[in-house]
Amino acid sequence: AQTVTQSQPEMSVQEAETVTLSCTYDTSESDYYLFWYKQPPSRQMILVIRQEAYKQQNATENRFSVNFQKAAKSFSLKISDSQLGDAAMYFCASKMQDAGNMLTFGGGTRLMVKP
Amino acid sequence: EAQVTQNPRYLITVTGKKLTVTCSQNMNHEYMSWYRQDPGLGLRQIYYSMNVEVTDKGDVPEGYKVSRKEKRNFPLILESPSPNQTSLYFCASSSRYQETQYFGPGTRLLVL
């Protein structure tokens, strides 16, 4: 079974600055996928970024990038130039290659953005 | 517009009164799932389905039932709800050819 741990229940960042959210996971599989989801106050789950474990290059999506350390089983999310609209709950999640649609989520990190 | 819909969005009920939360997707996805979200625990999978008439238990299936009679629909049934099933519920779907799951808007359930 996979486990995903987010050790920071809450984080805050000043608008326009950079913040990094931590995520570690535990799996015995070699093929898997990692995700970061954003949940704003509307409660909608929005995919922010995904990473395939077989890819060495870190994924990036505009102001969002990840630091994927496979050996350390670490998958942190970096948000650059933080905006007020980035304030939300962020969930890290993992999925094994042959696990159909079973995602394993971390407990979440609440990000606050200060103007 | 490609989407996953859930109904109702909000529901208050009493212990023991059977209820069904519907979920429908218009993307022809093979895979569908139900999750519940509780503070500090993230989302936990209740049941999932990999195709019509194929369902299986997730991490927290006790007290829930599902069915998949049609590809687009995946209702969640609580035969006898209890207060510990008060939660935020999400339905999600994905294609067997892609890894990304698409989530519905969520259903907030309160069991008194």
Compose a concise summary of this entry.
Chain A has 115 residues and is mostly beta strands.
Q: Largest contact between protein chains?
A: A-B, 24 and 25 residues
**Continuous helix count of chain B:** 0
Structural class of chain B: mainly beta
Radius of gyration of chain B: 13 Å
What level of helicity do the residues of chain A show?
under 10%
Portion in strands of chain A: over 45%
Count of separate DSSP helical elements of chain A? 0
- Major pleated sheet of chain A: 6 strands, mixed
Largest sheet of chain B: 7 strands, mixed
The poorly predicted ranges of chain B are none
Q: Kindly, what is the distance between the CA atoms of the first and last residues of chain A, rounded to a whole number of angstroms?
A: 41 Å
Termini separation of chain B: 36 Å
- Quick check: average pLDDT of chain A? 93
Q: Give the total of beta strands of chain A.
A: 12
Query: Which secondary-structure class do the elements of chain A indicate?
Result: mainly beta
Let me know the number of strands of chain B: 11
**Strand portion of chain B:** over 45%
Fraction of helical residues of chain B = under 10%
Essential attributes:
heterodimer; A: mainly beta; four-stranded antiparallel beta sheet; 12 strands; B: seven-stranded mixed beta sheet; 11 strands; globular
Notes on the protein architecture:
With 115 residues, chain A is mainly beta. Chain A contains no helices and 12 strands. The N and C termini of chain A lie far apart (41 Å). In chain A, the strands form 3 sheets. In chain A, strands 2, 5, 6, 10, 11 and 12 form a 6-stranded mixed beta sheet that branches. A 4-stranded antiparallel beta sheet of chain A has the order 3-9-8-7, with no helix packed on it. A two-stranded antiparallel sheet of chain A has the order 1-4. In chain A, a hairpin with a 6-residue loop joins strand 5 (32-39) and strand 6. Helices cover 0% and strands 52% of the residues of chain A. With 112 residues, chain B is mainly β. Helices cover 0% and strands 51% of the residues of chain B. In chain B, the strands form 2 sheets. In chain B, strands 2, 4, 5, 6, 9, 10 and 11 form a 7-stranded mixed beta sheet that branches. In chain B, strands 1-3-8-7 form a 4-stranded antiparallel beta sheet, with no helix packed on it. Chain B is globular and about 40 Å long. The relative contact order of chain B is 0.34. Chains A and B meet through strand 6, strand 10 and strand 11 of A and strand 4, strand 5 and strand 9 of B.
